Amino acid sequence: MATKHSQLYKVEQFLQEDEYIFVNRAAENFHLPLHNHDFIELAYVAEGKGFHHIGETVVSVHKGLLFILPPGISHVFRPSTPSQTSPPLIVYNCVFRSSLLIILRDWIGGAPPIADLLEQQLTHPAAFQPLFDDEGLIDALFCSLLREYNNQQIGSDACLRSLLVQLLVSIHRLLQHASKPSIKPVSVQHILIYMEQHAHENLTVGQLAERCQWSERHFGRVFKAHTGQSFLRYLQQLRIKKSCVLLRSSQQKIGSIAEEVGYKNIDAFLTHFKRIVGMTPRDYRRIVQNRHVPDISAVAFDGQ
Q1: Which of 119, 229, 215, 118 minimizes the C-alpha distance to 175?
Q2: Global pTM exceeds 0.70
Q3: Which residue stretches of the chain have pLDDT < 70?
Q4: Of 28, 135, 183, 229, which is most buried, counting CB atoms within 10 Å of its CB?
Q5: Torsion of CA 250, 251, 255, 256, to 10 degrees
Q6: pLDDT at position 248, please?
Q7: Helix, strand, coil percentages, rounded to 5, for the chain
Q8: pLDDT score at 282
Q9: Which residues form a coiled coil (predicted)?
Q10: Given the DSSP bridges, would you call strands 40-47 and 65-69 parallel, antiparallel or unpaired?
């Protein structure tokens, strides 16, 4: 499914003859061309938002999404905006030859043979929809893989193979779960990630409770037990935190920032901002741009 204007990347560009895996963590940009490759690539969105162009399809991406990209598939990631002040789109990439699955067959085992299923899943996926890492397992494995890959020492080869097997088995489990009707409610962590990505929208307890397959009352209890705050208080703090990033990094008008983070009423924005941050947006921008106060994104809210 390589397109006419897709650039071909060969495995030799990433792996020496005696190497079997390449791992990196990169900030996506608008310079990398649409490309396809003759190897298997696992791409995991670690931070930010943007888009993934896969063949003729464009998928909106955010933290926690994993893409399986077999040989011959044209694709490229793009950030949501070219602005240098916007949070970057960060993606982990794990590249390896298809033949590696044969080498790992004895390591993986299983009945029926997991390696056989993985080979089919990784080289001929039925669709290119992403998997969601709702428990953070894939994130942790990519982090460990990158650390071991970048800090080669005695035993690193065995560690990398072991971590790759764990990653492949975890992906197989996600694929198995994704193919079955789910009876498991969405986790609270999944909801928090969703809120992070959609804080500017008109979110309600009812909408999120429905996503979790819970009653609104039960959702409220679980949410507060998990975060220490009510849904509305958490949402307000999330929006104010995002507004602080924009106040610090842009010259947008305060009314425009209020609307961008989800406030239709400027007075409501000003009230919540002063309650949470302790000063007006104008004062915060003046002080923080003079570097007299720390980045608000690094400061824990008091939950009041």
Answers
A1: 118
A2: no
A3: 1-4, 109-113, 115, 125-129, 178-186, 291-304
A4: 28
A5: -60
A6: 84
A7: 45, 15, 40
A8: 93
A9: none
A10: antiparallel
pLDDT at residue 2, as a whole number:
54
pLDDT at 126: 57
Are 31 and 169 members of one domain?
yes
Residues 6+ apart with CB under 8 A from 254: 247, 266, 269, 281, 282, 285
User: For 47-64, b where at least 16 C-beta lie within 10 A, e where not — what string?
Assistant: ebbbbbebeeeebebbbb
For 258, the token pair is 């209020």
CATH code for the domain in which residue 133 is found: 2.60.120.280
Q: What is the pLDDT of residue 182?
A: 47
Domain containing 169: what range?
Answer: 7-178
* Coil, strand or helix at 35: strand
Domain count within the chain: 2
Is 160 in the same domain as 289? no
Q: Is residue 48 left, alpha or beta, with left meaning phi > 0 and alpha meaning psi from -120 to 50? A: left
